[in-house]
Write a structure and sequence with these properties.
Length: 280
């Protein structure tokens, strides 16, 4: 009987503490990150991506915040989540086995291309015994973009129903993605990928924002879900306006993570660019 008052008191404290912590974490990260809007996006990508110049798309010789693979992965995940918000609402079931099989293929393509690309990089930088291991093919940014975006779709397709399963008191007991909506999503991402490959700054500027903010959004969502589970608030929410505290908590934890990784990597490398000595 005493649990409810204690829990309510903790909630009241957190309503004041979390916004202050969020503001401090965001201010600290803003202070250490490079100047300018693209500089801030670089600092997001810096925490999750190698940012090797040759493996990134360029806007007038300035690389995007993430490499081609991570650009595809995180912009596609962001688009897929937004797509499901409008198309799926509170649907809480994973896709059918057939769609899951396609998502597994996306995952395998991501893993194979990533491994082949990593081997190619190591052979260029380290050589030695690795030279005896043949590459499946010469890696390129087009394949990185498409395999990365496939992985982004897979992440969002699994994450979205999990979010709904965690948040809502009343849910729609249907798959979040069915074949029609899944086909529309895959087609949309494929068209965006083809437009990205035109290398037009008109396209690459929005993609730079979308990929970096998609990265941040995924971190916020994961940490928010973790927060809700730790606070034992699963399936207690009825309206989106009730989610401000868990998602602000997720934002705070995401900013602390970005701040910590940025500072650690900057301490070791001394540059906001890709890892020194790695190219190709």
């Amino acid at each position: 009987m005493e649990t409810q008052p204690i829990r309510q008191k903790l909630q009241n404290i957190l309503r004041w503490l979390v916004p202050v912590a969020a503001a401090l974490a965001f201010a600290a990260w803003m202070y250490i990150s490079p100047e300018g809007a693209l500089g801030k996006l670089d600092a997001i990508g810096y925490a999750v991506c190698h940012r090797i110049d040759a493996r990134s798309f360029q806007i007038d010789d300035r690389q995007l915040p993430l490499c081609a693979r991570c650009t595809g992965e995180f912009y596609a995940a962001g688009v897929a989540l937004i797509f499901q918000v409008f198309m799926s609402g509170k649907r809480n079931k994973l896709p059918s086995r057939g769609i899951i099989a396609v998502l597994v293929l996306f995952f395998l393509a991501f893993g194979i291309d990533g491994s082949n690309s990593y081997l190619y990089l190591m052979k260029q930088t380290a050589g030695g015994a690795l030279d005896q291991i043949p590459n499946l093919y010469i890696p390129n940014n087009t394949l990185r973009l498409f395999t990365g975006s496939g992985m982004g779709i897979a992440l969002a397709a699994v994450l979205y129903p999990v979010i709904n399963q965690t948040l809502w008191r009343e849910m729609d007991d249907r798959p979040a993605l069915e074949w029609k909506s899944f086909g529309m999503l895959v087609g949309l991402i494929a068209v965006i990928n083809l437009i990205i490959l035109t290398d037009s700054p008109i396209i690459l500027y929005p993609i730079a924002y979308l990929s970096a903010l998609g990265t941040l959004s995924l971190l916020v969502i994961v940490f928010a879900i973790l927060w809700i589970m730790l606070m034992r608030q699963d399936n207690e929410f009825e309206h989106a306006r009730q989610l401000w505290l868990p998602f602000l908590s997720g934002f705070t934890l995401a900013m602390l993570m970005l701040l910590s990784i940025d500072l650690l990597r900057l301490q070791f490398t001394g540059t906001w660019s890709g890892f020194p000595g790695m190219s190709g």
